[in-house]
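Input structure tokens:
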């Protein structure tokens, strides 16, 4: 059994897989039948090995993303193995034709995960646009309105999505607290750590929040005291106590139906809301 790993020596790996003989259509068909009917893992291995060269060929077209070629090939190999598992020879197509979709899908997912720290494409239309727009940008360098509309029509997406993706592709990742400073341009002030602040612990905001909560609590306290003792006790046992009482438990205590307890509770909550609403209007 040949063991080959692209991360060890990429050039040696490529030479090795190119040297693996291709299967004829009949050989491929027979191996695929063995795999589907008998679960023959040796047949699966032969199908994968004979098509590794095609993964290398496809992976080369993704060399412009600044990612290791060996990693892209590895992801493509995963796609090839998934394709082999799902390949049905009765459809009359060669494995490589069927596997292209799976190989590219795995490579696309890897590129989108690793090209930038922050994902640039999340929706289906953005993912489709990401790869197509990069090739278009190589030709146009910058896009005017007519070119944006043409690309949007070709890919069946909204022109605004094209503009947004163009902006994302033109931007760069920036470290939150980059230690490398450009003294000439004074780039240290561009680091997010120098201008993004956490306002949660601002004394003014904390005091405002404390005053609001205190004021809200006081309004609630006054509203509760305007209710009769029975209704106040119902609300306390239903909402304020750690151990909440059920409608039926309160019905047994006060000798009324559970429905009556529910009505009293609903009416009391409505009165409290109205009182608080009116007190807010008065203070405005």
């Amino acid at each position: 059994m040949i063991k080959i790993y692209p991360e060890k020596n990429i050039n040696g790996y490529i030479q090795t897989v190119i040297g693996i003989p291709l299967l004829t259509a009949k050989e491929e068909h027979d191996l695929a039948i063995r795999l589907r009917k008998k679960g023959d893992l040796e047949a699966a291995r032969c199908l994968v090995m004979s098509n590794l060269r095609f993964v290398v060929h496809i992976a080369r077209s993704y060399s412009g993303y600044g990612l290791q070629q060996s990693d892209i090939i590895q992801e493509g190999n995963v796609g090839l193995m998934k394709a082999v598992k799902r390949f049905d020879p009765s459809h009359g197509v060669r494995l490589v034709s069927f596997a292209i979709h799976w190989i590219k899908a795995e490579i696309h997912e890897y590129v989108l995960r690793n090209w930038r720290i922050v994902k640039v494409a999340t929706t289906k239309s953005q993912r489709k646009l990401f790869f197509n727009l990069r090739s278009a940008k190589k030709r146009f360098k910058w896009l005017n309105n007519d070119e944006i509309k043409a690309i949007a029509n070709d890919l069946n997406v909204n022109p605004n999505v094209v503009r947004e993706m163009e902006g994302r592709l033109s931007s760069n990742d920036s470290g939150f607290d980059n230690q490398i400073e450009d003294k000439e341009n004074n780039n240290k002030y561009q680091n997010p750590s120098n201008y993004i602040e956490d306002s949660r612990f601002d004394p003014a905001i904390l005091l405002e929040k404390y005053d609001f909560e205190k004021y809200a609590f006081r309004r609630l306290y006054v509203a509760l005291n305007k209710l009769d003792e029975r209704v106040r006790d119902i609300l306390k046992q239903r909402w304020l106590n750690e151990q909440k009482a059920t409608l039926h438990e309160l019905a047994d205590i006060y000798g009324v139906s559970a429905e009556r307890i529910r009505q009293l509770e609903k009416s009391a909550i409505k009165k409290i809301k109205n009182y608080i609403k009116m007190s807010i209007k008065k203070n405005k």
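Residues 123 and 129 are 10 Å apart (CA to CA). The first helix runs from residue 10 to 18.
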